[in-house]
Batch of 2 targets.
Target 1
Amino acid sequence: MKFSALFSAAAALLMFAGCAGTAVQSAPTLDEVFQTRRSVRAYEAGKVVTEAEVREIITAAQNAPSWANQQPSKYYVALSPEKTAAVLEMIGGNKEKVANASALIVSTYEKGKSGFNRGQQVNEVGEAWGAYDNGLSNAYFILKARAMGFDTLIMGMRYSDQLRPLFGIPDNEEVMAVIALGYRAADPAMPVHRPVDDIVKFF
Ligand SMILES: Cc1cc2nc3c(=O)[nH]c(=O)nc-3n(C[C@H](O)[C@H](O)[C@H](O)COP(=O)(O)O)c2cc1C
């Protein structure tokens, strides 16, 4: 009797622990995200990223810093098969790499905001501050996507003159990268990184 009561209690504890183990999946650390985030050039067909998930990624990207909090970055998200098929024709040789990505997202920034004060260019960098802010936003985007288990490819090889009419992107926005979003079909190789001493000088 005593033994069976103990056994039941132990079994209940084990069941609880088992349930807790499956229910609580720990989030990856920032270093794990950095290590596993790679440019993915082959995606699993039929695995879908939802609009809600893309919203979550872009909401996270809104935490990126920007010049005077100008937040010049904008995202145009192709999710439907028709729209993604159209974008695939506008990214040149990248088409084969991202043919099975779930979403193709055009990243732009509004010109005349970052690096400007009352319409006047603040320093020699000029509009490049908008591109700087856009890159920061994109960095947050791809890292958040990886933290959620997705994969990405930033593509600078794309035809902006064709993408503009497809999404109705106005002239006051600079079209930057197209970002593929989906699930990796295979683990990509780690690229060679320059030694830190090549890129840093301490004084
Ligand atoms: C601005 C920018 C443009 C890029 N354009 C392309 C592209 O058009 N096609 C492509 O296959 N990779 C492109 N890449 C991916 C880079 O080749 C990749 O980030 C680099 O080789 C380092 O690999 P990793 O991202 O796996 O660390 C681009 C990356 C950046 C940041």
Target 2
Amino acid sequence: MRILVVFYSRTGNTRIVAEELAKVLECDVEEIIDTKDRSGPLGYMKSGRDAMGRKLTVLQDPVNDPSSYDLLVIGTPLWAGHVATPVRTYMQQQENFKEVAFFTTAGGSGYDGAFQDMEELGGKSPLATLGVAEKEIKNGSYQSRVAEFAKKIR
Ligand SMILES: Cc1cc2nc3c(=O)[nH]c(=O)nc-3n(C[C@H](O)[C@H](O)[C@H](O)COP(=O)(O)O)c2cc1C
């Protein structure tokens, strides 16, 4: 089975989970790159507004063609209870998903809003979902949760 882990990360948390997942699954990994500057406090505010307004953005062209993979494992930070704008844009632009699984990272909890958005955008129920809190990334406990998630989708 060909698997692609695809993720967006503004400040690095989702990247840490994505890279661990790709290592465990021994699969390709692709970062979604936004052309909009989202750095700093202003970037934070713009991002919250974009997420709440279900806005789209302009992405750099992806390197990998998702339709050539059997499973896409898509990762997003939670933004104002929703999927992050660059991931919304990616999922809207790439339509041919075979199987999907989702993961999100968040400051607290409330992951379901992001998973619901992603299910609607992909038009598919995920094989599994994983929500990781920032504190689990900091204390390292995300690694065992990633391993469990990988077992469910492999
Ligand atoms: C615009 C914005 C909105 C956010 N909204 C939430 C939220 O609703 N709930 C929450 O728990 N964390 C929220 N966060 C925190 C992020 O989800 C969390 O820090 C995440 O791990 C960041 O991932 P990243 O480092 O990959 O960008 C928000 C962060 C940003 C930038």
